[in-house]
Amino acid sequence: MHDAALVFDLDGTLVDTVYQHVMAWHEALNDCGIELSIWRIHRRIGMSGGLLVRALARELGYGLEQTTIERLQSEHGRIYRERNKTIVPLPGAKDLLELLTRENVQWAIATSSHRNTAQTALQALGLPAETVVITHDEVERAKPNPDLFLAAAQKLDVAMKDTFVVGDSVWDMLSAQRAGALGIGLLSGGYSLSELVDAGAYRVYEDPADLAANLHELGLRI
Predict the structure, then answer these.
(1) Lateral strand order in the sheet of 106-110
(2) Structural domains counted in the chain
(3) Fewer Cβ neighbours under 10 Å: the N or C end of the chain?
(4) Is residue 97 located within the same domain as residue 129?
(5) Would you say residue 16 has pLDDT above 60?
(6) Cβ(218)–Cβ(164) under 8 Å?
(7) Is the pTM of this model over 0.85?
């Protein structure tokens, strides 16, 4: 068994779903009478839903009632599930997870989504039954708090200092730093190389396939 473990974000890291989430949030916000440019929403993807809505509201210069925040989160989940019956893994995602399993490298998935929203994406990866998956349902606070990654490492029974957090957003990298792990950035969620590095990424790769080809850079003897 290797000393290190990898904890993966889900959307934009293993599955190609970032822009589906953006459009679902855009529609949910519009339905509540909140008009926001799509690019502003994209910059917040990766946060917990409640924090995302509060952050976007602050950009508009006003607050939202808790009931409105809860309605927006519910509507986002409903729209996303209804509109996205088919989810596609990112290039190399399934091969990367299978490679890690064959080489006895522990790994887990930690997502800010709730279980019912994430289920289709998780199924698209064809995960083994024993896969450790931590969703927002299992922790008090999602990203950019470190709770998700801390819970995943605890479930794997590995120290955070021996854990790589793999994600596509600056919020993943911030969470990794707060958890005490090394952050590995992927460009597959739409953030740039410089943004991920500035947020603390140790290395940045294009997508899971590129990461799989360069696992030696993480000190993994594969």
Answers:
(1) 132-134, 106-110, 5-8, 163-167, 182-186, 201-205
(2) 2
(3) N
(4) yes
(5) yes
(6) yes
(7) yes
**Sign of the dihedral defined by the CA atoms of residues 114, 70, 174, 172, in that order:** positive
Among candidate residues 34, 56, 83, the one where a domain is terminated: 83
Q: How far apart are CA 153 and CA 146, in angstroms?
A: 11
Q: Which residue has the higher pLDDT, 171 or 62?
A: 171
Same domain, 198 and 101: yes
Q: Is the pLDDT of residue 187 over 70?
A: yes
Amino acid at 47: M
Answer yes or no: are the C-beta atoms of 167 and 183 closer than 8 Å.
yes
CATH number of 60's domain: 1.10.150.240
DSSP labels for 142-197? -TTSSHHHHHHHHHHT--GGGEEEEESSHHHHHHHHHHT-EEEEEGGGS--HHHHH
Top pLDDT among 173 and 69 is at 173
Report whether pLDDT(1) > 60: no
| Nearest one of 222, 208, 205 to 97, comparing CA atoms | 208
Which two structure tokens, joined as six digits, stand for 84?
A: 């996205």
Integer Cα distance of 84 and 60 in angstroms = 29
Residues 168 and 102 in one domain: yes
> Same domain, yes or no, for 95 and 53?
no
Model confidence over 107-124: pLDDT tens digits? 999 999 889 889 999 999
